[in-house]
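Q: Could you fold this chain for me?
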Amino acid sequence: MEEKKRFPGLILCMCGFLLGSFIPNLIWKTEWHQGTLEAIYYLTSFTASGSVSGVEYLKEIIKFRGSLWSLCMICGFSVFGAPLAVTGLLILGCRIGMVIAVSILEFGLLGGLIGTGLLFPQYLLYIPGWIFLMEQIWEQSIDIWKHRELFPVNKKRYLGKTGISALFLSGGILAECYLNPWIVEKILDYLK
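A: Sure. Below is the predicted structure, expressed as structure tokens.
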């Protein structure tokens, strides 16, 4: 009997986090950080200060996160879903690690608080949602590859499970739009 192997989503995300924490430390001494990091900081300050309208900001987040989710979900119907699932979680972890590492390098130990504030609370929903989505994409893509079929038999199950990840993503989008700017503003006020 063949034992089904579990997709290592959390491990991939953690490896990406370690890589993302390591990269800024390697290239910190170069000129890269001077323009790029200040732009990131001012962008987050801009959105946190309420300069962007809630509805417009929500539309931008939905457009970015929703299109990314849709593209990933569609890739699950092909053999490209398996490599996408692996690289997607590595990139997710890498982005989280880079935000925190760059914040610490730019602003010191208190920068870790700023970096964490930039990710909180939306990533409490994004991380499990993306890991769950990538696991479903991985399983669907591997199933297509093993059975050499163009249209999978169990597409209703796949669509239902990816719908669960859409609920996590929706909650994260709302948290990113309405809670995160307030949290970042409070953290920046506290640090001033």
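A (continued): The two ends are 62 Å apart (CA to CA).
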